[in-house]
Amino acid sequence: MTRDLKNNALNISVFGVVQGVGFRPFVYRLAHKHGCRGWVKNIGEGVEIHLESFKPDAIGSFLKELECELPPLAKLERLVTGRASFSGCRGFTIKKTTKGKSFVFISPDISVCPDCLEEMRSSSDRRYRYPFINCTNCGPRYTIVRDLPYDRPQTTMDSFIMCPDCRREYTDPLDRRYHAQPIACPVCGPKIALFRAKPAKKETGGIERAAGLLREGFLVSIKGLGGFHITCDPFNLRSVHRLRSVKKRKRKPLALMARSLDVIERYAWISEEERIHLSDPRRPIVLLKKKKDIPGIAPHIDMMGFMLPYTPLHALLLENIDLIVATSSNPKDAPIIKNDRDEIRNLCDYVLTHDRPIHMRADDSVLKVTMGTPLFIRRARGYVPYPQKMPSFLASKKHILALGGELKDTISIYKNGYAVTSQFLGDLDDYRNFAYFEETVNHLTKLFDIHPDTVVSDLHPDFHTTRYAEKMNIPHLQVQHHYAHVLAVFLEHHLPKNEKALGIIWDGYGYGSDGGAWGGEFLLADYSSYRRLGHFLEVPLPGGDQASRQPWRMAVSYLNAAFGLPLPDVPSLKNISPAKIKGILSMIGREINSPLTSSCGRLFDAVSFLAGTSPLEMEFEAEAPMRFEAQAADHAGKGYPFEIIDKTIPWRISFLPAIRAVVSEYKKKTPICRISAEFHMTLAQAAAAIADKTRKDFNIHTVVLSGGVFLNKKLYEFTASLLENKGFRVLRNVTYSPNDESISLGQIGYALGRLQQEKKHNG
Ligand code: ZN
Ligand code: ZN
Ligand code: FE
Q1: What domains can you pick out in the chain, each with its CATH number?
Q2: Neighbours of ion ligand 2 (CB under 5 A)
Q3: What are phi and psi of 5, to 5 degrees?
Q4: Strand, helix or coil at 700?
Q5: What's the pLDDT tens digit per position in 334-364?
Q6: Nearest bound ligand to the CA of residue 508
Q7: Contact 525, 618 (CB under 8 A)
Q8: Distance 138 CA to ligand 1 centre (A)
Q9: CA distance 211 to 220
Q10: pTM of this prediction?
Q11: How far apart are CA 487 and CA 471, in angstroms?
């Protein structure tokens, strides 16, 4: 009998996002419920539990519930149990954290939870209408942490001294605010402040007044979790135009924040999956199909981006107004603003701010649901820094830092089997974004205790990230851009060690292994290498970077390639002066500043222009293709003709026949919705044709679709459906964006693959 009892003790180690999410009090309550004794404590890499019980089934049922009833923010990655000796514990206790070599996962920032909202709305609660209410299940995390372990002194809450009531809650294991690091109340916590921007003057009335100001047509900057929003009344066209003029954005879609799903439903269609994502505690912006347009919000595009309030402050504000424009406060090409200094005052009439500092910036995340799963346009707040487990055969003891590319950059780090990818950092050709990049490199390496053994960058010799890597004086690997895209998908889906797949990677630009401008790529790839199996037929890019802003240049280039001179009569070209067109043709003819490109993005630019859906100058990336996509009918026929030139590898895929078809359709006055749908189908058919050839010649059954062009929902749906009907397994990014935000993750995969090869060589 006694011997049996002695066996009734168990050690449990739990790994994952288990610190700072109410995990220990959860264990404590569970132990009490099942009558178990012992202790729980945070260890370097997770949580350790020691359990003892006299009741035979107690430990078993404890374990079952531990795995099924996790606190909402906790994520179990691994649970290890081992026999322990029975030491006759008297009760169950929460022990002090032991410091050690750590790789602790930090929870992303999470929207205010229903329990806190209920308290906030109850007039008898001591946090009635308090805009900083939070608990162990909700509130700021990543954006307020300065260092680990995740404890109050290491967060931006360190300057607020807890009042006796808060301290009592904070130290009571049975309280739902036990060790909630950002715990606060009206007595001891952060406070709201409203200012007139210019001249700066403190105003009274707080949140209610701010809502009133919005209704009166003013622009109000509001401090959120990862930075300021600029907000205004979306139905006041004058305010919307003013907001657009201070942000220097004439047409780029603006995000909206709505009080409730009911409000959203007045203006947009919401599917079941979209509803789930809108209500998710991570609160992304979800792009939804317009039902009733709000003029000036997303001109020429068939979708609008909506989110629900995610901080208690937002929830209070939206009690007084249904819907607001809530766009991030970054000045053009710069990172989102996190401090309420002059910078923010130049962008608005009033500032609604508070005194809880933001340590790390994070933009709102943006996604659209495509074939039932999210397609990320931007992955930041709410998702970062959630770790990505690497396939176990790639495990390495080394630390890796991957710096990404140049545009839409992120960085990733690798340690102990996991990669963590940063929030979206923007385009690093602007010095302010580059400073943000450096800040993030320093922050993540410190937070996760990374001492990089290897740094990875893009192949491009002139990228700022490549130069930064060179200066680090540690082993430096460089990865081809499109191969990194493929590997990111491999990692997300844990493709097995020797699996080969066809990567169809379509984007605007990536530096090729031959120095060329790649972007319509078919790569046969596995973890260790790739082969460029095919690419779009190259055409001149007249004026280099300028051509990616002015789609008519690409239209001229494609017309010239498809028809020769004289160019056919195309109505949309009538808006361009003949002299300009002549200039471009002579640039192309004399090969001046006209590098060749296989870019899929540029092909879309050209066709959008020919079809008459493009502005003369694009204000933001893919503006013309987005308008073109918005016009497309839901169904298409067989698409337009294209040609595969396959005498040698790499095969070349020519869309010149499709260009000729588009021009003749346009002349025949075929409706744009048909032209657009058929053109999208043409690309899908080309993808399927190359996949067929690859299956036949190389016995490949898995196709990876990635690259920024696959943010085009229509294109993705057409292509994936065709491939699936042909029996291919189709994979894409689901927790990362297919655009260049996932380059740094792919770079980690490459470095891990190389380390495995080295191991094989040396051992
Ligand atoms: Zn809460
Ligand atoms: Zn307090
Ligand atoms: Fe790319």
Answers
A1: 2-106 (3.30.70.100), 192-377 (3.90.870.10), 389-421+445-479+743-762 (3.30.420.360), 504-732 (3.30.420.40)
A2: 163, 166, 185, 187-188
A3: -60, -40
A4: coil
A5: 999 998 777 899 999 999 999 999 999 999 9
A6: 3
A7: no
A8: 4
A9: 9
A10: 0.95
A11: 26
